[in-house]
Specification:
The chain is 26% helix and 29% strand. The chain is an alpha+beta fold. The strands form four sheets. It has a six-stranded mixed β-sheet with strand order 6-7-8-3-9-10, sandwiched between helices. The chain has a five-stranded antiparallel β-sheet with strand order 13-17-14-15-16, with no helix packed on it. Strands 2-1-4-5 form a four-stranded antiparallel β-sheet, covered by helices on one side.
């Protein structure tokens, strides 16, 4: 345990003014102590497969994540996203394929030889240690010189804005503050990538929204790769530079949030990223995606260049700024429309029959479902 003077020194450093984190926190350091050469590709998976008994957790997964990118793995429970994170961290070894970190093949390397840190849902803070000592635990275990430890911890606490709480114990902190301590502890050794396993899942909705902004700010400030695993689509869409949707151990699609929301390749991606109207094309199994916000409800039939279907209102859900309207067509096709109250007909109620109109350019063709 450090002497009290160690704490004062670190706090004094943080109080002297803004700290340029590029001096320490943004330089990934390997176990050997040398600064790793930054690669355009921070994390790469090449044809990775992994099984638990007869169950395929990952099936021929290939993925490339750029240095400095905020990347998310999104998908339902059991899709393989947490397995992917554990394989990258080195807690498990794939049965097939390769894992490269900063261009080095580390498929068989143990966790402590990989330039990554992992933040779990439960922050696993040491309850008997102060915030300062929790963050200092990593560099001390690597036997860093004490002046460097003070500098690193001071900078990490400055980044997560917890300098003034450095002497508190975890039980004296809010959930959001505890999460920031876990982030500081993961960042203090300057990993090449930070792996986040649903770190916001335990927080209440308001705090989750606040911490999303904090996560993005911290990632931009330190400039390292963040890989987030989540099943929360709003979280993935709002935080990510790019994201990947996994389904049954397979990669469905990779792209920017806007690309995946507006131009998904499959019904799996379309429906997982938001409410979706899937309109049959009349040609085999093909369907077209029409997002609910693109569907207009009207007493008038579609105009020139528009498409339309007659439908009856089944449900109305007031959601504050918007209203969700669920309808059903004569052929039993369900539809969803989302609009502001001002944009909907004044006499709209359950049982109302009206036209659902849309511009064909607002719909998007999806690939037929792949065979299992």
């Amino acid at each position: 345990m450090p002497a009290a003077g160690g704490h004062h020194s670190g706090l004094d450093i943080a109080k002297r003014g803004p700290i340029r984190t590029s001096s320490v926190l943004t330089q990934p350091v390997l176990e050997s102590g040398r600064v790793a050469a930054l690669s355009a590709e921070a994390i790469a998976l090449r044809h990775v497969s992994h099984r638990y008994g007869d169950q395929a957790a990952l099936d021929d997964l290939s993925l490339s994540i750029a240095a400095g990118e905020f990347f998310s793995l999104l998908g339902p429970s059991g899709c393989g996203k947490t397995t992917t994170l554990r394989l990258i961290a080195g807690f498990e070894r794939p049965q097939a394929g390769r894992i490269l970190l900063q261009g080095q093949d580390l498929t068989q390397a143990p966790p402590h030889r990989r330039p990554v840190n992992l933040v779990f849902q439960n922050y696993a803070l040491f309850p008997h240690l102060s915030v300062w000592d929790n963050v200092a635990f990593g560099p001390r275990s690597l036997r860093r010189p004490e002046p460097e430890i003070r500098r690193r911890v001071g900078e990490a606490l400055e980044v997560v804005r917890l300098t003034e709480l450095a002497r508190r114990r975890p039980h004296q902190l809010s959930g959001g503050q505890q999460q920031r301590v876990a982030l500081a502890r993961a960042l203090v050794n300057a990993p090449a990538a930070l792996l986040l396993d649903e770190p916001l899942a335990a927080l209440d909705p308001d705090l989750r929204r606040t911490m999303r902004s904090e996560l993005k700010r911290i990632q931009r400030e330190v400039g390292i790769t963040f890989l987030l695993v989540t099943h929360d689509r709003e979280e993935a869409l709002s935080l990510s530079d790019r994201l990947a949707v996994l389904h049954r151990g397979r990669l469905e699609q990779v792209g920017t949030p806007r690309e995946l929301y507006e131009r998904p390749t499959s019904a799996v991606v379309a429906t997982f990223l938001g409410a979706a109207n899937l309109l049959p094309t009349g040609a085999g199994e093909g369907v077209r995606l029409l997002r609910p916000e693109r569907l207009r409800l009207s007493a008038s039939p579609p105009g020139e260049g528009e498409r339309g279907l007659r439908a009856r209102v089944r449900e109305l859900a007031f959601q504050g700024a918007t209203v969700e309207v669920r309808l059903r067509c004569a052929d039993d096709l369900p539809l969803i429309a989302i609009d502001t109250s001002a944009g909907l007909p004044d006499d709209l109620s359950i049982g109302t029959e009206l036209w659902c109109r849309w511009n064909p350019a607002d719909s998007h063709a999806l690939q037929p479902p792949s065979r299992p």
